[in-house]
Amino acid sequence: MNWDDTTDADAPAERLVGASADGEDQAVEAALRPKDLGEFIGQEKVREQLDLVLRAARARGATADHVLLSGAPGLGKTTLSMIIAAEMEAPIRITSGPAIQHAGDLAAILSSLQEGEVLFLDEIHRMSRPAEEMLYMAMEDFRVDVIVGKGPGATAIPLELPPFTLVGATTRAGLLPPPLRDRFGFTAHMEFYGPAELERVIHRSAGLLDVEIDTAGAAEIAGRSRGTPRIANRLLRRVRDYAQVKADGLVTQEIAAAALAVYEVDARGLDRLDRGVLEALLKLFGGGPVGLSTLAVAVGEERETVEEVAEPFLVREGLLARTPRGRVATPAAWAHLGLTPPRSQGSGNGQQDLFGA
C-alpha cells in the first residue's frame, strides 16, 4: 500500500483525482501508511529488490546504499523512504529539491546528519545545479567542501560526513543528469496499480478508517482511482462521507457510484477538467488536430495545467494522442462521451492544422 510524495507543485491540490497531497491528505496518509515492507501493497518487484538491499546492509552492519525512486505522484515513494528508515532502525530527515536552491542549504542539512540517518530528497530533479554538484561528492565520498570567502581569497574547507543513506524521489527521472543518477546504488521505478491491488489498498484503508465497505464497493472506487493509491484513499474518504450522510454508512457499489457522481468522477476516473479537455477537443475542434495553447484557451485553463495535469492520464487511457500537428482525440474518446466522430476526422482539417502543436 502507499500514497506518497508530499509535494507536487504541478497539480492543483483541489482536484479530487489529483495525485498531489494537501495538508489534510498528508495527515490522513500518515495514519494509513504501512510501517514495513510486509504491509506495503503492490510494487512486488521493487519490494523484493529493496528487501534484499536492506537485509544485506543490516547483515553487514553497514549503511544502506543510496536509493532512487521514480514514478508518478501518489504511488508510494515517500512511504518507501520511511519504510527504509524503519527497516534500518535509523532516523529520517525529509526535504525537497525546490527547498535547496543554494549549495549552502544542502551543506547545512548534510553537516547535521547522524551516522546511518536517511535523508529523503523529494523532487530531486528540481534541486539547483550548485547543490547538485555538491551532492556528488557527499554521496560518493561522504565529504563536502565548504567555500569560505569570495574571489581569489576563497578557501575550500573539507568537511567529513558520517555515512548516510540518500533516498531520492522524482516524477521525472529523465531530468536527472547521468552523474547523479549513476551514484545511486539502487534505482526503482514505481508502476501504476492494477484494480486488484487498489482494492486491497481500499480494504486496508477502510479497516483503518473504520469504514464498512463490501467487495463491489471497493471495486467501484478502485476502477475510478487512476491506478494511484493516494487517489483511491481520497475517493474512499469522500464516499465514506456520502454513505454516512445519505445512507446507513455501508459502502456498496451503488453508494460508491452515486457518491462519485456527486463529485464528478466518472467510471474511468475522469473529472471535470479531463472531460472539459475532451469535450472541447471533440465538440469545438472535431477531434483535432489542435494546438495545446488553443485547447487550453478553449477550456479556460493555463497551457501548463492542460499539459501536465490532464493530458498524461488521457494519453495513458488511450483517449487522446499527441501528434506533430497537435492533439487528436482517439475513437475511444468519442465512444466515452457518447459522440459520433465526423467522417472527416483523421483526414486532417486544414484550418485546425494552422493551430500547430
UniProtKB/TrEMBL annotation:
<dbReference type="GO" id="GO:0005737">
    <property type="term" value="C:cytoplasm"/>
</dbReference>
<feature type="region of interest" description="Small ATPAse domain (RuvB-S)">
    <location>
        <begin position="194"/>
        <end position="264"/>
    </location>
</feature>
<comment type="similarity">
    <text>Belongs to the RuvB family.</text>
</comment>
<feature type="binding site">
    <location>
        <position position="193"/>
    </location>
    <ligand>
        <name>ATP</name>
    </ligand>
</feature>
<feature type="binding site">
    <location>
        <position position="74"/>
    </location>
    <ligand>
        <name>ATP</name>
    </ligand>
</feature>
<feature type="domain" description="AAA+ ATPase">
    <location>
        <begin position="63"/>
        <end position="194"/>
    </location>
</feature>
<dbReference type="GO" id="GO:0006281">
    <property type="term" value="P:DNA repair"/>
</dbReference>
<feature type="binding site">
    <location>
        <begin position="140"/>
        <end position="142"/>
    </location>
    <ligand>
        <name>ATP</name>
    </ligand>
</feature>
<feature type="binding site">
    <location>
        <position position="322"/>
    </location>
    <ligand>
        <name>DNA</name>
    </ligand>
</feature>
<dbReference type="Pfam" id="PF17864">
    <property type="entry name" value="AAA_lid_4"/>
</dbReference>
<dbReference type="GO" id="GO:0000400">
    <property type="term" value="F:four-way junction DNA binding"/>
</dbReference>
<dbReference type="Pfam" id="PF05491">
    <property type="entry name" value="WHD_RuvB"/>
</dbReference>
<feature type="binding site">
    <location>
        <position position="327"/>
    </location>
    <ligand>
        <name>DNA</name>
    </ligand>
</feature>
<feature type="binding site">
    <location>
        <position position="230"/>
    </location>
    <ligand>
        <name>ATP</name>
    </ligand>
</feature>
<feature type="compositionally biased region" description="Polar residues">
    <location>
        <begin position="342"/>
        <end position="357"/>
    </location>
</feature>
<protein>
    <recommendedName>
        <fullName>Holliday junction branch migration complex subunit RuvB</fullName>
        <ecNumber>3.6.4.-</ecNumber>
    </recommendedName>
</protein>
<comment type="function">
    <text>The RuvA-RuvB-RuvC complex processes Holliday junction (HJ) DNA during genetic recombination and DNA repair, while the RuvA-RuvB complex plays an important role in the rescue of blocked DNA replication forks via replication fork reversal (RFR). RuvA specifically binds to HJ cruciform DNA, conferring on it an open structure. The RuvB hexamer acts as an ATP-dependent pump, pulling dsDNA into and through the RuvAB complex. RuvB forms 2 homohexamers on either side of HJ DNA bound by 1 or 2 RuvA tetramers; 4 subunits per hexamer contact DNA at a time.</text>
</comment>
<dbReference type="GO" id="GO:0048476">
    <property type="term" value="C:Holliday junction resolvase complex"/>
</dbReference>
<keyword id="KW-0067">ATP-binding</keyword>
<keyword id="KW-0227">DNA damage</keyword>
<feature type="binding site">
    <location>
        <position position="79"/>
    </location>
    <ligand>
        <name>ATP</name>
    </ligand>
</feature>
<feature type="binding site">
    <location>
        <position position="77"/>
    </location>
    <ligand>
        <name>ATP</name>
    </ligand>
</feature>
<feature type="binding site">
    <location>
        <position position="32"/>
    </location>
    <ligand>
        <name>ATP</name>
    </ligand>
</feature>
<keyword id="KW-0233">DNA recombination</keyword>
<dbReference type="InterPro" id="IPR004605">
    <property type="entry name" value="DNA_helicase_Holl-junc_RuvB"/>
</dbReference>
<feature type="binding site">
    <location>
        <position position="183"/>
    </location>
    <ligand>
        <name>ATP</name>
    </ligand>
</feature>
<dbReference type="InterPro" id="IPR027417">
    <property type="entry name" value="P-loop_NTPase"/>
</dbReference>
<dbReference type="GO" id="GO:0009378">
    <property type="term" value="F:four-way junction helicase activity"/>
</dbReference>
<keyword id="KW-0238">DNA-binding</keyword>
<dbReference type="GO" id="GO:0016887">
    <property type="term" value="F:ATP hydrolysis activity"/>
</dbReference>
<comment type="subunit">
    <text>Homohexamer. Forms an RuvA(8)-RuvB(12)-Holliday junction (HJ) complex. HJ DNA is sandwiched between 2 RuvA tetramers; dsDNA enters through RuvA and exits via RuvB. An RuvB hexamer assembles on each DNA strand where it exits the tetramer. Each RuvB hexamer is contacted by two RuvA subunits (via domain III) on 2 adjacent RuvB subunits; this complex drives branch migration. In the full resolvosome a probable DNA-RuvA(4)-RuvB(12)-RuvC(2) complex forms which resolves the HJ.</text>
</comment>
<feature type="binding site">
    <location>
        <position position="78"/>
    </location>
    <ligand>
        <name>Mg(2+)</name>
    </ligand>
</feature>
<feature type="region of interest" description="Disordered">
    <location>
        <begin position="337"/>
        <end position="357"/>
    </location>
</feature>
<keyword id="KW-0234">DNA repair</keyword>
<feature type="region of interest" description="Disordered">
    <location>
        <begin position="1"/>
        <end position="22"/>
    </location>
</feature>
<keyword id="KW-0347">Helicase</keyword>
<dbReference type="GO" id="GO:0006310">
    <property type="term" value="P:DNA recombination"/>
</dbReference>
<dbReference type="InterPro" id="IPR008823">
    <property type="entry name" value="RuvB_wg_C"/>
</dbReference>
<feature type="region of interest" description="Head domain (RuvB-H)">
    <location>
        <begin position="267"/>
        <end position="357"/>
    </location>
</feature>
<keyword id="KW-0547">Nucleotide-binding</keyword>
<dbReference type="GO" id="GO:0005524">
    <property type="term" value="F:ATP binding"/>
</dbReference>
<feature type="binding site">
    <location>
        <position position="303"/>
    </location>
    <ligand>
        <name>DNA</name>
    </ligand>
</feature>
